[in-house]
Amino acid sequence: MLASLRVSTARSAISAATRVARVNAVRGFIAPTVSRRADFVQELYLKELKAYKSPPVKDTDSVGQVQTFSAPKPPKSPEEADLATNLQEYENMAVEVEGNEGATATSTPAAIEDWLEEEEEEEAGAHH
């Protein structure tokens, strides 16, 4: 009895598996699997990429889109006569020294004031 039960259980399992396989085969035929759909989209995309031809580039395509290049003007060089005049003026300028703002270069320097004033100490014995 156990043997016949096992045989019938095995047969029912095999028949159930074949029914599921048939249903999957029918479903696979009607609706493609996700991987096949992805391949279809990829193939369609690659086909369109290969068929695309870019328009030829013309020399006049950039007109109005970018500014035309013009080289900057070279800087003016200083005149040598002007440099000599400026150098002479600099050499003839009076030298300014801190502390002698009001005095001229030929006069004697102003008397330096003593800003530190010391207080005289009173004798300690005078108050007592």
Automatic annotation (TrEMBL):
<dbReference type="Pfam" id="PF10775">
    <property type="entry name" value="ATP_sub_h"/>
</dbReference>
<protein>
    <submittedName>
        <fullName>Uncharacterized protein</fullName>
    </submittedName>
</protein>
<feature type="compositionally biased region" description="Acidic residues">
    <location>
        <begin position="114"/>
        <end position="128"/>
    </location>
</feature>
<feature type="region of interest" description="Disordered">
    <location>
        <begin position="56"/>
        <end position="80"/>
    </location>
</feature>
<dbReference type="GO" id="GO:0046933">
    <property type="term" value="F:proton-transporting ATP synthase activity, rotational mechanism"/>
</dbReference>
<feature type="region of interest" description="Disordered">
    <location>
        <begin position="99"/>
        <end position="128"/>
    </location>
</feature>
<dbReference type="InterPro" id="IPR019711">
    <property type="entry name" value="ATP_synth_F0_suH"/>
</dbReference>
